[in-house]
Each structure stands twice: as structure tokens, then as C-alpha cells.
Amino acid sequence: MLFLLRMLLMGLHFMIAGVLGVLIGICRPFNPDNSRLCARLYALPAMRILGLNVKADVDSLRNKPGTCVVIANHQSNYDLFVFGNVVPHRTVCIAKKSLKWVPLFGQLFWLAGNVLIDRGNAHKARRAMLTTTHTLQHEDTSIWVFPEGTRNLGKGLLPFKKGAFHMAIAAGVPIVQVCVSNYVTQMKLNRWHSGDVLIRSLAPIPTAGMTADDVPGLMQACQAQMDACIAQMDRELGAA
């Protein structure tokens, strides 16, 4: 019963937040800080509705070194509400183009200045990546990417795709890793307190002087560090 009530409230919240977010976007279209405002708009009420307790230790994200590429693990659609708590100033996201057809959210996402990529069209995807490189270098705006490319459903990190790493190296900006504990298989939405979630950001990794040849090693290092961080957070929650 509690689960059904929460889903009904979440549906209502999603629509109301979408309307308010679109209004924000219309008032200041493509402002890169719209993403942060809309993320909070979705996240803060959702955490109360879902009964999730989020604890964030993200100083390296809040104090990010100018522009950067932010990479994070991607568990489920609930990531919108979980990561929405920590999206920093002037940070936009890269996502698949099909998101623009989601009523209200898609329009909000576009008006917030986020980057929509047609993954089925290599030429358009490459052109979008070039645009993000220019954004990182000249528009004081960071890019948030889920390098797995799809949801892992809490079953561990999937292999990373190269795009985020090529982008960071091409722009010469650091990579900031953001990890969330395994919450999607642990939360109990039929309980008043449905679970605890930890979010942690790691020290920035500089890419200045790197070339495309460094991408495989950089990917491997990032995945290993994020795996270790997620495992550590899961152990902390298990011991609590």
C-alpha cells in the first residue's frame, strides 16, 4: 500500500516539477545553471516521498577546478532524484536524443541547455561531442556524463564508453568522479524509511598533456577507483 501511494505521489511530483522546470527554462532558456535548479526541484521533494536518506560527501565536486567532465555510475531512473541533490553550478548533462520526447521533462531538459545526442547517427554524435569540447573550453560550463551509457540496475559497473574521456582530454580539463552506493537493489519502498544512500566524489584527475593514446589507461584507472569507492560505501552501509 505504501509503495503504491509513493508511486502516485511521485507521478504527481514529476508532473508538477516538470511544469515548474519548463517555466524556469522559458524565463531563462539554455542557461547552464537551469540544470542545477531543476535537479534540486526534482530531488528534494522526491527524497521525502521515497523515504530515502541521502548523505553526500562531495567537496571535490562542489569545489570543482573550474570546468571539468563529471562522470558517475548509472543505476536506474531514480538517479535523477538521487544525483539531483549534488549537481553543481553551471553543469549540464549529456543524454540520448530520445529523452526530448518525454512530456515536460524532455522540454525542460532541452531548455536547461543539456546536450542531446543521436547515438544512432555517428556524424551527429561526433558533432555534438565537438560542441561540448567548445563548451568546456570557452563557456565556463562543466559536462556530466554517465560513461556506462546505460543503467546497470545495481549489478556493478558496466564497461565504460570512451566519449567522456576523449572529451576531457580534447578540452584539457580534469575529470571528477562521482559515486553513489548500490541503492536500487537495497531500497524498500514499502517501508517508511526505505533506505540510506551515500554519494561521494573523488579527487579531480588532470588530463592536461594527455592524448587519445592515454584514453584506455585513463578509463581503466577511473573504473577501478569508482569500483573501489562504491564497494567501500556499500560496506559502510552494511556495517551501520
UniProtKB/TrEMBL annotation:
<keyword id="KW-0443">Lipid metabolism</keyword>
<comment type="pathway">
    <text>Phospholipid metabolism; CDP-diacylglycerol biosynthesis; CDP-diacylglycerol from sn-glycerol 3-phosphate: step 2/3.</text>
</comment>
<dbReference type="Pfam" id="PF01553">
    <property type="entry name" value="Acyltransferase"/>
</dbReference>
<dbReference type="GO" id="GO:0003841">
    <property type="term" value="F:1-acylglycerol-3-phosphate O-acyltransferase activity"/>
</dbReference>
<dbReference type="InterPro" id="IPR002123">
    <property type="entry name" value="Plipid/glycerol_acylTrfase"/>
</dbReference>
<keyword id="KW-0808">Transferase</keyword>
<keyword id="KW-1133">Transmembrane helix</keyword>
<feature type="transmembrane region" description="Helical">
    <location>
        <begin position="7"/>
        <end position="26"/>
    </location>
</feature>
<keyword id="KW-1208">Phospholipid metabolism</keyword>
<keyword id="KW-0472">Membrane</keyword>
<dbReference type="GO" id="GO:0016024">
    <property type="term" value="P:CDP-diacylglycerol biosynthetic process"/>
</dbReference>
<dbReference type="InterPro" id="IPR004552">
    <property type="entry name" value="AGP_acyltrans"/>
</dbReference>
<dbReference type="GO" id="GO:0006654">
    <property type="term" value="P:phosphatidic acid biosynthetic process"/>
</dbReference>
<feature type="domain" description="Phospholipid/glycerol acyltransferase">
    <location>
        <begin position="68"/>
        <end position="183"/>
    </location>
</feature>
<keyword id="KW-0444">Lipid biosynthesis</keyword>
<protein>
    <recommendedName>
        <fullName>1-acyl-sn-glycerol-3-phosphate acyltransferase</fullName>
        <ecNumber>2.3.1.51</ecNumber>
    </recommendedName>
</protein>
<comment type="similarity">
    <text>Belongs to the 1-acyl-sn-glycerol-3-phosphate acyltransferase family.</text>
</comment>
<dbReference type="GO" id="GO:0005886">
    <property type="term" value="C:plasma membrane"/>
</dbReference>
<keyword id="KW-0012">Acyltransferase</keyword>
<keyword id="KW-0812">Transmembrane</keyword>
<keyword id="KW-0594">Phospholipid biosynthesis</keyword>
<comment type="pathway">
    <text>Lipid metabolism.</text>
</comment>
